[in-house]
Write a structure and sequence with these properties.
Elements lengths: L13 H5 L17 H6 L21 E3 L3 E3 L8 H14 L2 E5 L5 H15 L3 H5 L12 E3 L14 E8 L16 H26 L6 H5 L4 E9 L11 E4 L5 E5 L6 E5 L2 E5 L6 E5 L1 H6 L9 E3 L7 E9 L5 E2 L17 E2 H11 L23
Parallel strand pairs: 1-10, 2-3
Antiparallel strand pairs: 3-11, 4-5, 5-6, 6-13, 7-12, 8-11, 8-13, 9-10, 9-12, 14-15
Helix pairs in contact: 3-6, 4-6
Bound molecules: N-oxalylglycine and nickel (II) ion.
Length: 380
Amino acid sequence: MSCPCCRPGGDSCDEEEEEEEEEVGSFDMSMMKDRVQHLVDSGVKEIPPAYVRPFEERPVDVRTEQIPVVDLSGIDGKDRQSVRNQVGKACEDWGFFQVVNHGVPGKVLDSMRNDGRAFFALPMEYKLRYACKPGVIASEGYGSKMLSKDDQLLDWRDYYDLHTLPLSRRRSSGWPDDPQSFRETVLQYSHQMKLLAERILELISESLGLPSSHLREALGDPSQNVSVNYYPPCPQPELTLGLQAHSDLGAITILMQADIAGLQVKKNGMWIAVEPVENALVVNLGDMMEVMSNGRYRSVEHRAVVNGDRDRLSVATFLDPAKDCLLTPAKELIDEEHPRLYKEVLFRDFISAWYSKGPDGKRNIDSLKVIPSIESHQTS
Ligand code: OGA
Ligand code: NI
């Protein structure tokens, strides 16, 4: 979803990347009907049917729990082993963890939150100048729909998706210039997320018994997308979702969920609301991590819910393999006891399949299973 997963700006469309930079400024006001914020501003009291989830998908009876919190402050010293073990355990048990003392300056996080909110507070006329192109799945910009299909159930979410890395994909001169600091803020945020993602990938590699650089190298020249998710207040939050259940399709995602709860994670078949921890960042594993680890670690279904009286902003940074990267289980993780569970896949092909079908929980990765009925080693 924008994660692709659910990720709105998935890196899946060649046409888009080859396109010339478009002049910002032309826009079509009819597109505003597709923005959730427009619905809310027009005062709807009942949500339109396209946003109403079937009963079994509605966010009811959810427990609140804290997912593991890992303190990264000691990773360059004697605590590395202990941190690596905690990361490994969190990956095995949850596929999700939060990091604190992660080294990302508080002011970089604050600026991203503030500038993100400031953008969504601007008039629709301005925001639509940056609208992502309807029907183009990998289009960068301001949007709302996850897929381009007409018959999809919709999420109670608008987003701004930014293609930040590698530099060859970055067109920062086309990013919003209001608030004035927006572009600089995103550049700094992207840089910090790159550094943090590299450190986390090293820890995850080591926790699998692989050389520190294994996962980083396995991703080729990775893509990074920063998605600013904006969830307006909703008159009937119990009927809908801000973001439908999905697993992220790349390697790892780093989510700044800020101070307002909304993220939920599926564990043992039950949805659990993740309690926000101040200044923490949430890390979760994507489908390609499941493949590379031969199922030792799994991508995990998650979703976001919305509130009746408060809006919510989150910022998801997706680290994905290069499109031409062939993903395959690490050979060190395959032996007699642990047969190969996943076929190799070209990331480009995985993304196209994802976007043509939609997330449907984490069904997409099933097509990569060597024997579809074999569950991975872990039983969550
Ligand atoms: C995502 C995502 C959760 C949230 O963008 O892929 O899972 O809380 N977001 O916004
Ligand atoms: Ni996600």
